[in-house]
């Protein structure tokens, strides 16, 4: 998704948190290998002491590099616009407001993966026993953020949920935990598909 629905203000050019980036890169490669991040879809973030590091806009997760992360340190919502404060040189992922809101709502979350797992989406949500958003909202919008905050209030311990008509979000204490969980649920969906064929 290339439509940017917020304004970025660059506070400085140097993001901090190299150790976190390495773990995020590992989870991205794994996501790509498992077919969970086709094309330039998906984004990843990891919490840092002053905010979070997130993949930049329009990046292919499978080949992402250290310099394709920026650090988000704040978000401001006025009646007219959304403003995101960033350390780095490139635009952050279009789903930055979503990541920001999840970190605010859930202090236990240390990493977030947003993936396009069509497999999971094609299996009935009740089979996987996974919460999903009630309405479909456009990527990168505040309406989507509100849907997710509503879902998190209904399911305060949810670590994984489905964005209706769009994709999935897997969270964890670490990026490694988030990708392991995403792969596990992908496999469960796969089992359902195979049963269905029999
Ligand atoms: Zn998406």
Describe the protein's architecture and organization:
- The protein is an alpha+beta fold.
- It has one domain: 3-Layer(aba) Sandwich (L-fuculose-1-phosphate Aldolase).
- Helices cover 35% and strands 24% of the residues.
- It has an eight-stranded mixed sheet, with helices on both faces.
- Helix 1 runs parallel beside helix 6 (175-197) and helix 2 runs parallel beside helix 5 (142-154).
- The mean pLDDT is 92.
- It binds zinc ion (ZN).
Short note summarizing the structure:
The protein is α+β, with helices and mostly antiparallel strands and 198 residues long.
Q: How are strands sequenced across the largest beta sheet?
A: 1-5-4-3-2-6-8-7
| Helix-strand makeup class | alpha+beta
Low-pLDDT residue spans: none
Number of helices: 6
- Let me know the average pLDDT: 92
Q: What's the number of extended β-strand segments?
A: 8
CATH superfamily: Class II aldolase/adducin N-terminal domain
Beta fraction: 15-25%
* Oligomeric state: single chain
CATH class: Alpha Beta
- What is the CATH topology classification name? L-fuculose-1-phosphate Aldolase
H/E element sequence: EHEEEEHEHHHEEH
Bound molecules: zinc ion
């Amino acid at each position: 998704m290339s439509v940017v629905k917020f304004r970025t203000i660059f506070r400085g050019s140097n993001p901090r948190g190299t150790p976190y980036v390495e773990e995020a890169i590992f989870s991205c490669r794994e996501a790509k290998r498992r077919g969970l991040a086709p094309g330039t879809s998906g984004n990843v973030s990891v919490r840092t002491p002053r905010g979070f590091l997130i993949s930049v806009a329009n990046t292919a997760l499978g080949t992402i590099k250290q310099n394709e992360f920026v650090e988000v340190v704040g978000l401001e919502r006025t009646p007219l616009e959304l403003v995101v404060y960033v350390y780095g040189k490139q635009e952050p992922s279009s789903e930055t407001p979503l990541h920001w809101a999840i970190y605010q709502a859930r202090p236990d979350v240390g990493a977030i993966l947003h993936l396009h797992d069509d497999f999971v989406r094609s299996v009935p949500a009740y089979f996987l026993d996974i919460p999903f958003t009630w309405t479909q909202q456009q990527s990168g919008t505040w309406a989507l953020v509100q849907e997710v905050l509503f879902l998190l209030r209904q399911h305060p311990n949810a670590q994984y949920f489905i964005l209706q008509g769009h994709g999935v979000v897997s969270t964890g204490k670490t990026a490694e935990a988030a990708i392991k969980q995403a792969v596990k649920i992908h496999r469960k969906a796969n089992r359902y598909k195979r049963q269905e064929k029999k």
